[in-house]
Amino acid sequence: MNKGFFKIMAVICVLLAGTGCGKAEKRLEATPDDKDSKNPVSQQTHEEAINPGPNERAGEPMIVVFKRERILELYSGDSLVGRYPIDLGRDPSGDKQKEGDGRTPEGTYYVCTRNEQSRYYLSLGVSYPNEEDAKKALENGIIEEETYERIKAAEDNLSKPPWDTPMGGEIMIHGMGTGEDWTAGCIAVKNDVMDILWRSCPLGTPIIIHP
């Protein structure tokens, strides 16, 4: 009797333990973040994005954006690497002038920051406002002389300009593009395109944004 009782209890314990693990696995499988982390393609793409291959620096990179055509071109030296569709701000026509206008700036800039922890996959900071933007803002009474000098000094050093002025800032090239204009002035591309830009464009990479 005693031996039979203990055998039965042992079997019940094994069955209960197996059931608990199964439920835990189902809960884990239902978590979106865990699904993404188990995706070998996603993991490989992100690792490639953060760890450039040996042939990624064949020529000096440059980004050229055509707002009207919604196209971003990536160059390596004089060679065109690719042309990619983009999304812009909610009011994309015209040059950016002040914070909150929803416009994407136009002019010559450079990559001033790189963020691999971006809310929008990966991001490259655009060095808006530049000295030309600041000069116009100074003439129009949007900023003061001291702010103009800070922006000019940042451009001279190829560093990040101040983003806390009435001109606005934090204009990024980032992932999670949708095919529609939805940003607050940033340039959005598909995540696979962002991987290419991330690999190819270090700090200081020129960015030219056309109307």
State the main characteristics.
disordered N terminus, 2 domains, L,D-transpeptidase catalytic domain-like, 211 residues, alpha+beta
Structure commentary:
The chain is of the alpha+beta class and 211 residues long. The protein folds into 2 domains: 2-38; 59-210, Beta Barrel (L,D-transpeptidase catalytic domain-like). 36% of the residues lie in helices and 20% in strands. It is built from 6 helices and 8 strands; from the N terminus they run αααβββββααββαβ. The protein has helices at residues 2-29, 32-37, 40-50, 131-139, 145-156, 191-200; strands at 61-66, 71-76, 79-85, 107-115, 123-126, 172-174, 187-188, 206-210. An 8-stranded mixed β-sheet has the order 3-2-1-8-4-5-6-7, covered by helices on one side. Helix 3 (40-50) runs parallel beside helix 6 (191-200) and helix 4 (131-139) runs antiparallel to helix 5 (145-156). The longest helix has 28 residues, at 2-29. It is globular. The model is unreliable at 1-57 (pLDDT under 50).
